[in-house]
Amino acid sequence: MLGGAGAGKSFAVAQKIAIRSNTEVGHKFLVVRKIDRTIKDSVFAELLRVLNLMDVKFVHTVSPKKITLANGNEIIFYGLDDPEKIKSISGITSVWVEEATELNYQDFAQLTLRVRGETQNYKQFILSFNPIDELHWLKTDIIDKQIEGLEIIHTTYKNNYFLDAEYISMLENQNKLNETMYRVYTLGEWGKVATGAEYFKLFRQSKNTGITTYNPDKPLLISFDFNVNPYVSCSVWQVSGTHAYMLEEVTLKSPRNTTRAACKELLDMYPNHQTGVFIFGDPAGKARDTRTESGGNDYSIIQRELAEWRPQFKIQNKAPSLNMSGQFINECFAMDSPVKITIGSHCKLMIQDLLYLKEDAEGGTLKEKVKDTATGITYEKYGHLSDGLRYFITSAFADQYKLFLSSGKKLKRV
User: Fold this and answer.
1) How far is it, in rounded angstroms, from Cα 329 to Cα 305?
2) Which of 155, 248, 312, 373 could form a disulfide linkage to 7, CB 3.0–4.6 angstroms apart?
3) In 231-361, which ranges are continuous DSSP H helix?
């Protein structure tokens, strides 16, 4: 059960549990939320209300939180603050997880172990939530994979005929206040709700992405980042005046995570390109040998592999300040900026970087590290393609960047 606010998700699930527990026998329903203290005034109160509305006979206790129907069926409530609590529970016939996005995958996996054995009636997990994060495991590991037995019910305020006019007006006006909140809580669509900790605070997916098309009469501008895990990456751009368009992203994982392989990928993408190529990227690539190839540095490899394009190099002497280049790019994402950036809507990993990369206390990037369970390699999850974006924008629009640095104000035309 996923969708927007005011969509009746929780009430509908409470009704289903109330009906099943009143008409079937042999039930012990488990109702959970991540934090135990949130249960009393949410799912516990909701089920008591629904059972009373349906005139079902029951008794309940608050400590522990438990509802027992006249036919002997039980509805028990637990928080997953301490997952050890539920390990001793047995005989569960079905589970309701409210605000399921609060759980991590390990929490959910532990819950699945509680429901086992033969039962008189079908066993079911009901997960109710707002789709707040399109990278959440609920989407990537369950919904996108269409696991067996999955039924998706999507609902919004438009499906709830009992809402008052004031609440409906508030939901419909969310778009004026916060685009992503409107998308998630009004339309019930997957999105990324801003927390305020984002590095690219002014990036808006609906405004700063779009369809971008290669123009064979314009040069290609290619920006490299030379990390090899989780991939070696580069982004391909073209510019019209002071408007930069991202055409493609190249992200090659092991064993193809090399500068040479990235160059071959680019040649395959644009086999007939003849109108010039400019190379941007990490200044560190001028000094260090590539980690997976011998001979020269990363830029000498690019020079050799892309020789037929006769690339010109626009590499800075040192990497731009994380704090200031981030502020500059944020200004470029603003609608009134003379320098504009449009990310190709198909460039999913760049978009993820722009949405999920966090800011540290000094205004730099807080690069979260994750461990690949298959290889044991630890790497930074976000920040690689967006590093390439910083190298490119601060170099391609060097005049505007210098003016921004000297004025400390919003961008002006140069």
Assistant:
1) 30
2) 155
3) 259-269, 298-305, 322-333, 348-356
For residue 3, which of 176, 230, 188, 128 has the smallest C-alpha distance?
A: 188
Are 326 and 293 in contact, with CB atoms under 8 Å apart? no
By the 8 A CB rule, do 270 and 290 touch? no
pLDDT, tens digit, 9 for 90 and up, residues 58-70: 999 999 999 999 9
Q: Give 401's DSSP letter.
A: H
- SS3 label, residue 264: helix
Residue 414 has pLDDT above 50, yes or no: no
Q: Looking at domain 2-159, does it have CATH number 3.40.50.300? A: yes
Is 207-405 a CATH 3.30.200.20 domain?
no
Round to whole Å and give the CA distance between 308 and 65.
72
Give me Rg for the CA atoms of the chain: 27
Which secondary-structure segment (H or E) carries 380? strand 378-380
The pLDDT tens digits of the residues spanning 235-250 come to: 999 999 999 999 999 9
Distance CA(38)–CA(81), nearest Å, equals: 11
Domain residue ranges of the chain, discontinuous segments joined by +: 2-159, 207-405
Cα-Cα-Cα-Cα dihedral of 286, 362, 356, 155, to 10°? Answer: -170
Q: Torsion angle of alpha carbons 18, 20, 26, 30, nearest 10°?
A: -60
Contact between 409 and 261 under an 8 Å Cβ cutoff? The reply is no
User: Measured between alpha carbons, how far is 76 from 30 in angstroms, rounded to an integer?
Assistant: 5
The CA distance from 334 to 312, in Å, is 30
* Block residue for tokens 């190099």: 313
Q: Give the pTM.
A: 0.73
